[in-house]
Amino acid sequence: MCVGTLSSLVRTRALVLLGAPGGGKGTISKHILKWSGKQAHFQGDNARSRLSHLSIGDVLRSNVERGTPLGQQVGELMKTGALVNDSLILNCLSDEVMRLKAEKFQDVGESSAKAKEEQEKHMHYLLLDGFPRTVPQAEFLVSPEVGIVDAQDSSSQLAVQLDVPVEEIVERISSRWIHRPTGRTYNLQYNPPRAWSAERDPKDGLVDDETGEPLERRPDDEPEVVDARLRTYVENQQPLLEFFTSQDRLIRFSGSTFPDLVGQGKRSDAIVQEMLVNERLNNFWGVL
Ligand code: ADP
Predict the structure, then answer these.
(1) What integer is the mean pLDDT of 183-209?
(2) Which of 137, 221, 244, 252 could form a disulfide with 161 if both were Cys (CB 3.0 to 4.6 A apart)?
(3) Which numbered atom of ligand 1 lies nearest the CA of 21?
(4) Segment 24-30 mean pLDDT
(5) What element of type H or E holds 29?
């Protein structure tokens, strides 16, 4: 089916995950995806979740790895911790959203769109991890010309801010290791690779669980670059939070209502627990 037809048949709701680098956006996304897979399974929806996860950072890193024209354009800049310019990001986002929609809804036929119930079924949920990072990016998402989400629909978009103390962020990033070819991420504190024990020096042969290949630091996880990324985050975050607050679309989570989990170093788990019982979020997901 052509892309235009698919756009008109399948509506999109976006949950935007905002938070500092290393603040747990990726970990929390994984929890939400797992939960949504289970929901789909219980509803007999052929075990197919209608939720897609999109991390622009992952897409950019994969382009850098593959040496694509986009990767060549952004590789050096990403090493400095600065943001990639909005127009490149917006093109990349539009392409990825269309690709994900086609992947989830390839079997949606024109005739079925007429039934109201079917239309409800054709709701695509997007979990946007690390987008938007600037107010123009946030405006793009709801702009009628772009039409990623329906600006007229007040429930088409919700933003979630993850509030994590900066000391925790620095500690997390310093124990993060990745398997570069797949982007699989490990954290030596709470998600270490199987073949590692705390007595060993991290640099001493950390390997990926699936392939046995060596793990590496993300080039932008080196301490000087982390400082730059945190500065970039602080500069851009306040206007973004004000933007979503002014539209009454912002919910903040810190995990603090589950102090035991936070005390055990499991703040992301605590945040997920808070999210699962949040009424606004539950209404947003609808029958997902
Ligand atoms: P983090 O949230 O830890 O910074 P990401 O993987 O989300 O990590 O992003 C890595 C890098 O990719 C950023 O430092 C930035 O250079 C680029 N990037 C990711 N998302 C965006 C975005 N929405 N706008 C501009 N640049 C982005």
Answers:
(1) 80
(2) 252
(3) 3
(4) 92
(5) helix 25-42
Before 69, cis peptide (omega within 30)? Answer: no
How far apart are the CA of 137 and the centre of ligand 1, in A?
Answer: 13
CA–CA separation, 105 vs 115, rounded Å?
A: 16
Which amino acid does the sequence have at 118? Answer: E
Tokens of 39: 């929901």
- Is residue 60 lining ligand 1, measured as CB closer than 6 Å? yes
The tokens for 257 are: 């209502």
pLDDT band at 115 (very low <50, low <70, confident <90, very high): very low
CA Rg, the chain, in Å? 19
Q: How far is the CA of 78 from the centre of ligand 1 (A)?
A: 8
**Widest distance between CA atoms in the chain:** 62
Tokens representing 225 are 């670059």
pLDDT, greater one: 8 or 90: 90
Of 33-47, 116-130, 154-168, which has the strongest mean pLDDT? 154-168
Q: Which amino acid is at 243?
A: F
